[in-house]
Design goal:
alpha/beta
């Protein structure tokens, strides 16, 4: 089983590159953002709770997200592996993910860290907001989300670097150029 964490600031291309990873390696994509947004759209209790955090650019509490992920992982016994997109976002979540995967005698094999300058991230997210209509893609929320990323999520780079599974990927260029760097890193793990 191959388990990948795709890591980067909002707008770094995690979702786009995840699609290419799914196509090439046949992995199950788990996007916590997509899962939470679908709960919000369904106006479920979890969705209302998630929206109270996400609409302000804040992170949804760890326990809610970890429980939701474990439910998905436990149902997928014949999967080739997972791409975790948007999770973990804190060191505590990284530790929780490691502990949860250990129950299934698997681990995170590689962490792909997409590096993109802030101004490029803001431009991408504003453009995405115009196209998709996502309410959280406005300048004020984007700036807040980037600050939350640097305060709470960026420290995960050290966490995974100490485990020896962090690979920095340049996140600028064409989608295919970026994916070439990603595929090279993943192929080294599986070969």
């Amino acid at each position: 089983m191959l388990n990948i964490v795709i890591f980067g600031a909002p707008g770094s291309g995690k979702g786009t590159q995840s699609e290419k990873l799914i196509e090439r390696y046949g992995l199950q994509h788990i996007s916590t953002g997509d899962l939470l947004r679908s709960e919000i759209k369904a106006n479920s209790e979890l969705g209302q709770l998630a929206d109270s955090y996400m609409s302000k650019g804040q992170l949804v509490p760890d326990k809610v997200v970890v429980d939701m992920l474990e439910a998905l992982v436990s149902k997928c016994n014949k999967c080739k592996g997972f791409i975790f997109d948007g999770f973990p976002r804190t060191i505590a979540q990284g530790e929780a993910l490691d502990a949860m995967l250990k129950k299934y005698t698997v681990k995170v094999d590689v962490v792909l860290s997409l590096k993109v300058p802030d101004e490029e991230l803001i431009t991408r997210l504003l453009k995405r907001g115009e196209v998709s209509g996502r309410s959280d893609d406005n300048r004020e929320t984007i700036v807040n989300r980037l600050q939350v990323y640097y305060d709470q999520t960026a420290p995960l780079k050290d966490y995974y670097s100490k485990q020896g599974n962090l690979v920095e990927i340049p996140g600028q260029g064409s989608i295919d150029e970026i994916f070439t760097h990603i595929a090279t890193a993943v192929d080294r793990i599986i070969n």
